[in-house]
Write the C-alpha cells for this entry.
Amino acid sequence: MSEKTKKIKVEERSVSIIKFAGDSGDGIQVLGSQFANTNAVAGRDLSTLPDYPAEIRAPAGSPGGVSGFQIAFGDNSVMTPGSKVEILVVMNPAALSVNLKSLEKGSLIIANSDAFTQEACKKAGYETNPLEDGSLSNYRVITVPANSMVQETLKDSGLQPAQALKCKNFFMLGVIYWIYDLPIENTVKWLESKFAKTPEILEANKKALFAGYNYAENTEIFDSRFQVKKSNPKKGKYKNLTGNEAAAYGLIAASKKLKRKLFYGSYPITPASEILQTLSKYRAEDLVVFQAEDEIAAVCSSIGAAFAGALAATGTSGPGLSLKAEALGLAVITELPLVVIDVQRGGPSTGLPTKTEQSDLLQAMFGRHGDCPLVVMSASSPADCFHTVYEAARISVKYMTPVIVLSSAYIANGSEPFRIPADNELREFELTALPEPEKFQPYLRDEKTLSRPWAYAGLKSYEHRLGGLEKSGETGHISYDPDNHQRMTDIRREKIRNVANEIPPTMINGDESGDLLVLSWGSVYGAASTAVEKARKKGMKVSFINIKFINPLPPDLGEKLKKFRKVLIPEENDGQFAHIIRSEFLINPLSLTKVKGQPLLYEEILKAIEENI
Amino acid sequence: METKLTAKDFASGLPVKWCPGCGDFGLLTMIQRTMAQLNVPHEKYAVVSGIGCSSRFPYYVNTYGFHSIHGRAIAVASGVKLSNPELFVWVITGDGDGLSIGGNHMIHAIRRNTDLKTVLFNNRIYALTKGQASPTTLQDSKTKTTPAGNPDYPFNPANFAVSIGCGFVARGIDNDLNYGAEILQKSALYKGFSFVEMIQKCVVFTDKEFDAYKNPQTKDELTVRIEHGKPMIFGKNRNKAVIIKNFKPEIIEFDPANPPKDLTVYDSTSREMAYIISNIVPPQFPLPLGIFINSPKKTMEENYMDILQPQKSSISDYFPQSETYEIK
C-alpha cells in the first residue's frame, strides 16, 4: 500500500449495498456481475438484483433506458439485494434521476461527470447539472471524468475513440475495486478468457481497469475506503446463479440422479424464458428441449414425455399456468410425474409482466376443474430454486403426481452464490416397484404412498392405456361407476396428503411460543428473515417460520402456529396464503400485503412487526 | 421363429363402444392390420388420441395408448416421440379435434415434420357431443348448431395439409379396407409427419353423406384414384380423366379404347400437383382418393439430433472450472 492510502480512513461494514446504473449500452450488467463475482471469490455472501429497462430499445440517455444492477454483499446476514443503496454508481444523468430515490442521506454517489452534458441532463429531466447546482448536498458526491480518462489512457491503443470509450465501465470498475479494497485479478482472468480472440480489446479493457484503480489511488479525492466483512461459506465449488438458472440446473441434476432423459417443454414467457434458454444450451441425447407452439402444447408434450418415461418438466408464468390448467387435470388423473415451474409476475392478465408478485398461489392450489389436488412448493431464494426444483422432481416421481414450484420474478432474475453439490449429496429417487408383467395393472398402488408404478411406453409386456376418463381402480379401465369415482377421488386426495411424510419437521427460528410469529413462504423469505433478525436485535420477541410446502402443508404447522397469539403473514399478493392458513387452521392471521410489482422490503415487514408486538 | 401377426393380435379385448354401423370399425380394422404388417413389436407402438368418437381408439388396441384431452393429441404425441424416438407413434384424431381445437398443434407438427402417423377421421360433424357443425361440415348443411344451414366454409383436410407443406398426405374412405390399409401402410413407412384423412360416416348424424362414394352404382363416377405415375382416369367405363391444364384441373372424356396420350400423369412428389388435385371437390369433380404427396424430408427428430451436444454424466460437469470458484 502506498503512503497516501494509509492516511485514508477505513469504514467497516457487515454488509454493503452498491448499485451500478447507466444506459443499456454502458455495460452495466457486465460491470455488476464482475463486481459480484470478485466479492464471491473473496468469500463474501451476496445477493444481486438486475433491473432491466422495460422496453427493449428505449432511447439512449432517457430514464426509460436505464439499466441497473444492485448487489448486497458481506457477511452471512446477506439475505436480499437490499433496499437502501450505500454507493450509487451512475454512468449518466438519467441513471441518477431514476435511482436517487433509493439513496439515503449521506450515501455516496459516484458519477461519470463527462456524461453530464447540458443535453444529457435535459434528457434526464434536469434543468441544470445536478453535480454542480447543489441539489445533491445531502449526499457525498464523487465525480470521475471516466470518458476523458479512458480516452486518454487508450489514446495509443490503436482503438477508435468510440471503441475506446466502451471501456469506461472497466475504468469505473477499477475505481470501485479500489474503494472496496478488492483484488483486480479475478476480473483480469475473466477478461483474458472472454477476449482471448481479440487481444486489442482485451488489452484496452485491462488497461482501463488498472487505470481506474490507479486513478482512485492517486487522486486522493476519496476520503475513505470501505472494508466489508466476509461470510464463512461452506467449503466447495461455487457459481453465482440466478434463480432461473438454478431451476434449470435443478432439473438437470434430478434427471442425472434418476438416470432418465430430461424433457423440458416450454413456451417463451417473461420472466420464465431464461429456464428454457439455459436448458437449450445443453441439448443432448438425454436432455430434450422442446420449444412448443403454445403453453398448452408445452405442458401436453411434457405429459407425453412422462408417459414415455422421461423426467418431464415445463415452465411458465401466471398466464401460461392458466392455459396449462386443463392439461394439469390430465396429469393428475393419469398420475404421471411432472414438474411445473411457475415464475410468478404481476397479474391479472398481462398485468406487470416484468415485475414480481406472488399472486399465483391460489391458482396453483385450486385453479383446475374437478377435485384436482397436486403438490405445490415454493422456492425462497435464487439458489434455493435448484433445491426446490430437485425436490419437486423427486416427489413427482415417487408419488406419480404433478408438482408446481412457485418461483417469482424477484428470485428468478436475482442471483446469489450457489454451492455446486456433489452427486452423493443429492437425495436418491425412489420409484414405486414395478411388479412382474403378469401381475401388473396400471393403477395398482403402493400401500404406503398410494403411488402407482411408472410403466412407460416402450417397456415390453407392460402395454396399457391411460387417459382422461375416470379410471377403475387397479385395472385403469374406463369406469363410470359412482362408487369408483368416489374412491378414486379419495385416493387422489390421500396420495397428495401422504406427501406430508416427505416434509421435514418445521424449523422455528426463535421461541416456540409467544406473542408474534412471522410466517413467510417463497421469495419473501429473505426480507422476512432479515426483518425478524433486526427486530430481535432491537429486543423484540418474535419468532419466524418459512414454508416450502404449501400443498400439503407441513403436518406440524398448525400446532406450532397455535402457540402464538398473533401470526403475521407478509406476502406479495392480496392475502392468498393468509386465506389458506385461515381456512386450514381456523386461526386469523395478520396479513401484510404488497402488490406493487416490487418485492416486500425488510423495513416494511419490520414496521409491521413493531406495530403488532 | 416369430409367427406372423394379424389384425386380431392388436385387439385389446375391451368392448368397442362405437355405435353399430359406425365407420370407425372399418378404420380400426385397417389400422390393426397395418400394425400387424409392419412387424413392430406391441410395446414399440404408442397410440395417442384427443377427444371425440375417433379418440376412443387407443382403448381398442393392445399397445401403449394415451387418450388425452380435446385437441391435444399431437402435442402429447410430440412429447412421446421426442423423448423416445424408438417408438412408432400413431395419432388418432377427428375433424373437430384435429382441425378446430387442435389446429395449432396440427400446423406446427406439420411444420416441424415430427414423425407421427396421423389419421384424421373425418365425419364432418361433432358426433360425441351429438351433432354440432364441425370445421369440415359442408356449407349449407343442417346440424344442431346450424338449423338453417351451415353458413361457414369448410376445411378440406387433405388440401389443408398439402398446402402447409406436409410431406405425406393421403385420403381414404372407411368402407374400403384393403385400399385404406394400403394407404396407411405407405403412410407408416413414410419417415416424418404423415397425414391421412379418412372419410368416415357417422351413422347418427352423417349416415347418408358418403353413400354415393361407396355405392357400386355411383362410386366410379364420383371418386377418382390418385396414383403416382398414372393418369387420373375414372368413370364406370374408364372414359374420363382429371387433367391439369394451365394450372387448372379439368375433366375430359374420351374413348376408353383409345385414351389420349397426353393425359396428366400424377406425380406424388410434386407439391404443386398435390395442391391442385387435393383441392378438387364434388360436385364439379370426383372425390380424389389416394396419396396426394409422398415427398420425404428430414424429420424433427433428425433435425434435433443435428444440434446435440455431447452428453454429460453428472451435474458438476455443467460447471466448468473456468466459471466457478472454490471456497477452501
